[in-house]
Design a protein that fits this description.
The chain has about 325 residues and is an alpha+beta fold. The chain has two domains: about 20-150, Nucleoside Triphosphate Pyrophosphohydrolase; about 185-325, Nucleoside Triphosphate Pyrophosphohydrolase (Alpha-Beta Complex). It is built from eight helices and 15 strands. It has helices at about 25-35, 80-85, 125-130, 135-150, 225-240, 290-295, 310-315, 320-325, and strands spanning about 40-45, 45-50, 70-75, 95-100, 105-110, 120-125, 165, 170-175, 180, 185-195, 200-205, 215-220, 245-255, 260-265, 280-285. Strands 1, 2, 3, 4, 5 and 6 form a six-stranded mixed beta sheet that branches. A hairpin with a 2-residue loop joins strand 1 (about 40-45) and strand 2 (about 45-50). It binds zinc ion. Zinc ion binds near residues 156, 158 and 177. Zinc ion binds near residues 177 and 179.
Length: about 325
């Protein structure tokens, strides 16, 4: 397998936890596991953390750029959760079973309060993602995706009655007709467009900050294959036809519920590329030198390090990507 044929190693797809789905249906087992669990706290869209200034991380697992500056998830015991509910304004919230690793059960607790920062430090997955270990990232991505879904599905889509969380948070069941409703992930393709000179095409969305460019992406429509979606999205946003579509990898993107499926594709009409003028306002073909120089001059900002887009661009660029492309990155807002 040549260098560029290795699967992409994607930052949010590093999970190692055994989800142990067979344990979700046993309420007494779930209750017993909760008593001895390690529990991450997700509230107001953020995770409770041990900030990097308060600990050293000698067990470098290679995931953080500098493990001594890495934030960690602050895992609680069930007694600590009960104490927070009793002594502060945190609501009882929901518990989600996330799985087992080395005989230790992991749960997420989603009790919330006003101004959570008055109690402890909390950070978003965007802020934390590059710091967390493989174990932590799997727990965090699972917890955030579940919490987002539960928050938006308090009612049955069939009869409108209230639903309640069952099976450790893996299902919501209608309290009237007992229909069961499952968490969803919305598939979205993301594509690195190349030409026959091995340049890449990046685009800038109207809503992005100045100088921020990325690869092209869009949600898969009903009845559409991934490959058809790649062809349609590229045609809509950049005005060109692509072929030779090749799968690169996938990662969850729980902002709020996406699953990003990554491809590369080739066009033989690069000069025809033009922005659609609605979603995309600028497109640009880049050689490796042109990309490096634009980043150095700060006329081009790349997407964040935990994104698929960033990894696709780095993989195309080659072994010097970390050195040459560091610095310029930005979130869309
Ligand atoms: Zn119902």
């Amino acid at each position: 397998m040549s260098e560029d044929r290795k699967p992409l190693e994607l930052p949010l797809a590093r999970a190692v936890v055994d989800r142990a789905g067979h344990l979700r249906t046993d309420e007494s087992e779930l209750a017993a596991m909760w008593e001895k669990a390690a529990i991450l706290h997700f509230a107001s869209g953020k995770f409770r953390v041990i900030p990097h200034t308060r600990h050293k991380a000698p067990e470098a697992d290679g995931t953080a750029q500098n493990p001594h500056l890495a934030n960690r998830l602050d895992l609680l015991t069930s007694a600590q959760v009960e104490e927070l509910i009793r002594s502060t304004e945190f609501s009882r919230g929901e518990r989600f079973f996330l799985g087992i690793e080395n005989d230790l059960p992991y749960f997420a607790w989603c009790g919330d309060a006003k101004d959570i920062e008055q109690f402890h430090q909390y950070l978003t997955l965007r802020e934390l993602g590059a710091d967390l270990s493989d174990l932590e990232i799997g727990l965090a991505v699972h917890a955030q995706a579940l919490a987002n879904w539960h928050h938006k599905h308090p009612r049955c889509p069939i009869c409108g009655a209230a639903t309640k969380s069952v099976f450790g948070g893996s299902v919501r069941r209608c309290t009237e007709d007992e229909t069961e409703h499952y968490p969803r992930s919305d598939p979205a393709i993301i594509v690195l467009i190349k030409d026959e000179r091995d340049r890449i095409l990046l685009g800038r969305q109207k809503v992005w900050p100045e100088f921020r460019f990325s690869t092209f992406a869009g949600f898969v429509e009903p009845g559409e294959s991934f490959e058809q979606c790649v062809v349609r999205e590229v045609n809509e946003e950049a005005g060109i036809h692509v072929s030779e579509i090749r799968y690169l990898g996938s990662q969850p993107w729980p902002f709020p519920a996406s699953l990003m499926i990554a491809f590369e594709a080739i066009t033989d009409t690069p000069d025809a590329a033009r922005p659609d003028g609605e979603e995309i306002v600028e497109v640009i073909w880049l050689t490796r030198d042109e990309l490096k120089n634009a980043i150095r001059k700060q006329t081009l900002l790349l997407p964040p390090k935990i994104s698929v887009a960033r990894k696709m661009i780095e993989a195309w660029y080659g072994p010097d990507a970390k050195r040459d492309l560091s610095g310029g990155e930005t979130w869309r807002s």
